[in-house]
Design brief:
Strand content: 15-25%
Number of strands: 18
Shape: elongated
CATH class of the largest domain: Alpha Beta
Oligomer: single chain
CATH topology of the largest domain: Rossmann fold
Strand order of the largest sheet: 11-14-17-10-18
Number of domains: 3
Number of helices: 20
Distance between the termini: 79 Å
C-alpha cells in the first residue's frame, strides 16, 4: 500500500517542493525515513506514531518506509510531521485519498495529535500558490495566507479532524493597518546637524555613522529613524514578511507596513549577523531587509563580523556557501552605526581630557576598518548637549513634518527613476548633471582628500539626495560642499 503527499522544505527564503512517499508492507514492524532527512525529520517517527494513536487511528503493525523525494535535496525541520502522518493514513486507507489530493501539507505534530505552526509558513504558502495546489496547515499558520494571490487553504488543527469529514477552508484574518507608535524627534534636544544628516539618510536610503562621546545622544537619534521613514510598499511588505517568516518572527507588523529596526548586541556572532547555522537561517542583516540595521558600539563588534557587512552594503543581498549548497538571502538595509571617537570616549571633547594613547586610538579605529567606513555615506560628529538646553526643554521639530519632507523627497526622486543611493556609473552622473565649475571643484576636492572611487560615488549620491530635498534638478556647488562635509570624521 502506497501514498504520496506534497510538502516543501526551506532553502534560504524559498520553499522547494518535496513529495512524501509512504510505503506500508508486510514484514517486521519498523518505521524508516529516507531521503536525506535531518535530525528533526528523523525524530518525526516518534511524534507521528504517538499523534496517530492519540487521534483515534491505528498505526500500522508493519514495515513503514517513508521516502522524501527528490532524494539528493536535504530536508529540514519539523514541518514534515503532518505530511508523513497524512501519507501513512492514506496508504493504510484510514483516510480517503481525496483528503490530501492536490494539496501541500505543512505542520508539526504534538503527541496528542494537534498541529502546530512552523517557521517559514509564508514561504510554504507561496510555494503552494506557485504550484497551483491547496495548502493544508494549522489555523494560526494560515491567518495571513490571503496576502498571497491565488492561494487556497484548508485548516487542520488536529489529526482527529480527519475523522469528521472534509477539512474547512482557511480563515484569513485581515492585517490591521494601525499606526505603530515610534519614538519622536521632538524628544531630542539640540543636535540640529545630526538631525539634518538623519533626514538625508532617510530621504536617500544612505548609511550613517555617528561618532561622539558617551551620552551624547547617538542611540537616541538612531532609534528615531524608523519614525521618519515611509511605510513599506506592497512589494517590500511581502519581501520583508517572507524573511521574517523564515526567521521565525511574527510577520504581521511587517505586513501592516512597519519597517524593521534591528539592533543586535555587539556580542553578535558572524552567523547571527550574516545568517547561517544548520539548517541555515537568516541573520540580522536579512531580518533588517527594507529597514534599518543599527549597530551600537560599532568597534566592539568582532572585526570578522563587521567585514561581512561589506558585500550586502554594495549588492543588497548576501550569499552563504556551505557544503550542502548555496543559499541567498536578501539584505537591502540602511546601516546606522554609533561609536565613540576613542576607547575612553572623549577624544576631541572640549571639556574632558582624552586618556588614550595614540596606539590605543589607532587600534580602536582599525577595528572598524577603512573599507567599511568607505562604504558609509554620512559620518557625523556629535558632541554632548549643554545641560541648560536639556533642562530648558526647548521645543524641537517633531518627526511628522520631517517624515513628510522625506516622503516628498522620495516622490521627487521617483520621477527620476530611483533613490540616489541606488544610482551608479553613468546613471549617477546623468542624474547629478554637474556643470563645469561644480565638476572642477569636486575633482579638486577629491584629489586633495584622496577619495577612492567608491568615496567619489557615495559623495555624489549624497549630493544628489540633498539636491532632491531642495527640489533641484541639478547638483550645485552647495550640495557638493555639504556632502563632502559628511566624510570628515573630525566633524570640523
Amino acid at each position: 500500500m502506497q501514498a504520496t503527499v506534497l510538502t516543501a522544505t526551506l532553502s534560504g527564503v524559498e520553499a522547494l517542493p518535496v513529495e512524501v512517499q509512504a510505503d506500508v508492507t508486510s514484514g517486521l514492524p519498523s518505521f524508516i525515513i529516507v531521503g536525506l532527512p535531518d535530525a528533526a525529520v528523523q525524530e518525526a517517527r516518534d511524534r507521528v506514531r504517538s499523534a496517530i494513536k492519540a487521534s483515534g487511528f491505528d498505526f500500522p503493525n508493519a514495515r513503514v518506509v517513508v521516502n522524501l523525494a527528490p532524494a539528493p535535496l536535504r530536508k529540514h525541520g519539523t514541518g514534515f510531521d503532518l505530511p508523513i502522518a497524512l501519507a501513512i493514513l492514506t496508504a493504510t486507507r484510514q483516510i480517503h485519498v481525496n483528503a490530501t489530493a492536490g494539496a501541500s501539507a505543512v505542520g508539526e505534530l504534538a503527541l496528542d495529535g494537534s498541529v502546530r505552526s512552523v517557521s517559514g509558513m509564508l514561504a510554504f504558502v507561496i510555494a503552494a500558490a506557485d504550484a497551483d495546489v491547496e495548502i493544508i496547515g494549522p489555523s494560526a499558520a494560515l491567518r495571513t495566507a490571503h496576502v498571497v494571490d491565488g492561494v487556497r487553504s484548508r485548516r487542520l488543527d488536529s489529526l482527529a479532524q480527519l475523522r469528521t469529514g472534509p477539512l474547512p477552508e482557511g480563515t484569513c484574518v485581515p492585517i490591521r493597518q494601525t499606526e505603530h507608535p515610534q519614538p519622536d524627534l521632538a524628544e531630542v534636544a539640540g543636535h540640529n546637524a545630526a538631525k539634518r544628516a538623519l533626514e538625508i539618510a532617510a530621504a536617500g536610503g544612505h548609511n550613517l555613522v555617528m561618532i561622539g562621546p558617551p551620552g551624547s545622544g547617538k542611540t537616541l537619534l538612531a532609534r528615531r529613524l524608523p519614525g521618519i521613514l515611509p511605510p513599506l510598499s506592497p512589494l517590500e511588505r511581502m519581501q520583508t514578511a517572507l524573511v521574517h517568516s523564515v526567521g521565525g518572527l511574527d510577520e504581521a507588523p511587517t505586513l501592516a507596513g512597519v519597517r524593521p529596526f534591528r539592533a543586535p548586541h555587539h556580542t553578535c556572532s558572524i552567523a547571527g549577523l550574516a545568517g547561517g547555522g544548520s539548517p541555515p537561517r537568516p541573520g540580522e542583516m536579512s531580518l533588517a531587509h527594507n529597514g534599518v540595521l543599527f549597530l551600537d558600539e560599532l568597534p566592539e563588534f568582532g572585526p570578522a563580523a563587521l567585514q561581512t557587512l561589506r558585500q550586502p552594503l554594495e549588492d543588497g543581498f548576501l550569499t552563504l556557501v556551505r557544503a550542502e549548497g548555496r543559499v541567498r538571502y536578501p539584505a537591502d538595509f540602511t546601516l546606522i552605526g554609533a561609536m565613540n571617537p576613542c576607547p575612553c570616549g572623549y577624544l576631541g571633547d572640549p571639556e574632558r581630557h582624552c586618556s588614550c594613547s595614540p596606539w590605543a586610538i589607532n587600534r580602536y579605529d582599525a577595528r572598524v576598518g577603512g573599507p567599511l567606513m568607505d562604504r558609509m555615506d554620512l559620518v557625523i560628529r556629535m558632541d554632548r548637549i549643554d545641560p541648560d538646553l536639556l533642562i530648558a526643554a526647548s521645543p524641537s521639530e517633531p518627526s511628522a513634518p520631517v517624515r513628510q519632507r522625506v516622503l516628498e523627497t522620495r516622490a521627487f526622486a521617483a520621477e527620476r527613476g530611483d533613490l540616489a543611493s541606488k544610482l551608479s556609473g553613468t546613471a549617477l552622473l546623468a542624474a547629478c548633471a554637474l556643470d563645469g565649475q561644480t565638476s572642477r571643484l569636486f575633482t579638486e576636492i577629491a584629489r586633495t582628500k584622496h577619495f577612492s572611487g567608491r568615496a567619489v560615488t557615495r559623495v555624489l549620491r549624497v549630493a544628489r539626495t540633498i539636491a532632491d530635498i531642495e527640489r533641484s534638478r541639478r547638483v550645485m556647488t552647495s550640495h557638493i560642499s555639504e556632502a563632502v562635509s559628511y566624510r570628515d570624521r573630525s566633524g570640523e
